[in-house]
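Regression check, adenosine-5'-triphosphate case 477:
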Amino acid sequence: MFNASSKRFATKVPGTIDLEISDPVLMLNEVAKRYETAERVLMEYVDNALDDAEVLFRENGNAYPYPIRIDITINRANRAVIIQDNCRGMTRETLERVVRNIGESQKRGQTWVNGRFGFGVHAFRAAAESVSFQSKHELGSNHTLTLQRDQHRGIKEAKRLDAPFPTESGTGTVVTVAGFEADWFSPVTVDSVRAEIEHHFERLIARRNLQITVHEAGQATQVCTAIDYAAIEGAAIQEQLHLTYKDEEYPVTIYCKIAADASVKRPVSFFARDRRIGDVVEIKSFMRKSVFKTSVWSHPNLMGYIEVGNLVQPIINRDDFVRTYSRTLLYEALLPVEAEIKQQLQGVNQQQKEQTFDQFEQVVQRALAEVVTDSGLAVVLVADGEGRRVLVENGRLAINTAHPDFQERLRTTRQGNPRPSDRLNAYLAGILSIYGVHRLPGRNENLSADTQLDMQIEMMLALETQLRHLQNKSFKD
Ligand SMILES: Nc1ncnc2c1ncn2[C@@H]1O[C@H](COP(=O)(O)OP(=O)(O)OP(=O)(O)O)[C@@H](O)[C@H]1O
Ligand SMILES: [Mg+2]
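Current build output:
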């Protein structure tokens, strides 16, 4: 798409017009603005290393012929990140071609690798000043080439280096993205890069003989590890769809897990060729079609992946899918799966609802105990108060959660989980203060009506404050 300049000297056919890009730098920089984070920019370079490793993997009967290493170094002083691999490397010719022939990908049509646009190396333009390559192929020597973001002409050709290439295999590529803009770079840490890799390539890094590490000067090297879904307690939902598009069959793999413990955050993501596109909830085109939307795909207990293979193609910065009929087919095929997940989540939701009400009951009880130290009044939440708002039975104050007045004031989370509100607090404070003043034995004897009213107001306000305070502590998610 950007290869107009490569045809600059081609003979023109009389009576025809050729496309030309008057300012390729401006155009490339504008396209790169689609990237949202520095981590996502960096993934393009890791992606290229993994694509190169993939060729070795395939040629060797689906196993890496030697331990593949991709090492990422964060250099804070230069606001730079270095991505080094020990794969096949590039010859001088390839290296120069990569920089010169924009939008030309030798990988196009090869379904086993991810590259297809010939734009990935330009991702740095979103956030950094330059990209430098040092590469050594077994058929060539060690060469370097640097490209500045604002450079159009006069780019220095690849320069030969006498030093040996710094990997055991003697081949590979070192990419340095330097001069990151400060606000893009400041959130970049070993943890953030590692987290992105572990999620973005979670399906690839589980392979034997592939290691990706991240480190920053003066800090320990961290090895990226694959998530082991099987080891996570919970019910799994697995499906393999076979969708037919233009007479070809495309497999789509779905693996979702309803984790018993919601503390591991791994929202279900779309993957294409083992590379993460984005959380399902972030894919706007799918969310428009989805029936249960965030109540399923943002459920805190739901994790997993949807691998779409080659049925749909990512857009240039790989965070959504190109609009095609195959995309419609995919989304429609996912709706029954979504309904099944929703069904299975109901059980978890019910359990969580009960837990939340238990927690809520304790908060109300504690608030009362804080305000009326010797109340001795037990407060329980019941879902059947015979149509009454409150019942007193055997020294217990039973608040009916099924009453419309209670329900109207109760807020719920997206998953339908109850969440207290200020209105509900005021309602409870009102009820508790009435019962606190008028029903507690020995409280109101010999007091004038005015004093009793004052006591009630004070208790109501104190309870409302306490409820709010205790809930803030207890219901922070
Ligand atoms: N680490 C690397 N090892 C070997 N070759 C590389 C490496 N990085 C880049 N290349 C070469 O540079 C080319 C351009 O990379 P680039 O990411 O721009 O395009 P692509 O991977 O072909 O497609 P896409 O834009 O979809 O990523 C690649 O096709 C590959 O030939
Ligand atoms: Mg690429």
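Comparison notes: The pocket of adenosine-5'-triphosphate (ligand 1) is lined by residues 44, 48-49, 51-52, 85, 87, 90, 94, 98, 105-107, 115-121, 173 (CB under 6 Å). The first strand starts at residue 68 and ends at 75. No diff flagged against the previous build.
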